[in-house]
C-alpha cells in the first residue's frame, strides 16, 4: 500500500484505499494462504508453512520469528 500512497497519493483516509486494499492485497494474501477469509486464517502457521516450502530451514524460521518478536 506504500506504493499507492507514494505514487498515487492515496492514503487510509481516502475512499479508494479500502477498495484497493480489499481487491488487491487481501485477495492476493487469501490466495497465497489458501483461505477465504484473511481474518479467520492462522497466518503465523500459514507463513511458517510457506517459508519452509520455499527453502527456509526451521532454524532460520525460528531466528526470524525471534527477531520479529514472535
Task: Describe this protein's structure.
- The protein is mainly α.
- It has one domain (2-68).
- Helices cover 69% and strands 0% of the residues.
- The chain has helices at 2-8, 15-33, 43-53, 58-68.
- The two termini are 23 Å apart.
- The mean pLDDT is 88.
Helices and strands: which structural class?
mainly alpha
Number of strands: 0
Strand count, sense and barrel status of the largest sheet are: none
- The structural domain count equals 1
Q: What is the percent of helical residues?
A: 55-70%
Shape: elongated
Q: Let me know the average pLDDT.
A: 88
The helix/strand series, from N terminus to C terminus, equals HHHH
End-to-end Cα distance? 23 Å
How many helices? The count is: 4
Poorly predicted runs are none
What share of residues are in beta strands? under 5%
Radius of gyration, in angstroms, nearest whole number: 15 Å
Chain-wise SSE layout:
Blueprint: H1 2-8, H2 15-33, H3 43-53, H4 58-68
Condensed summary:
The protein has 70 residues and is mostly helical. It is built from four helices and no strands.
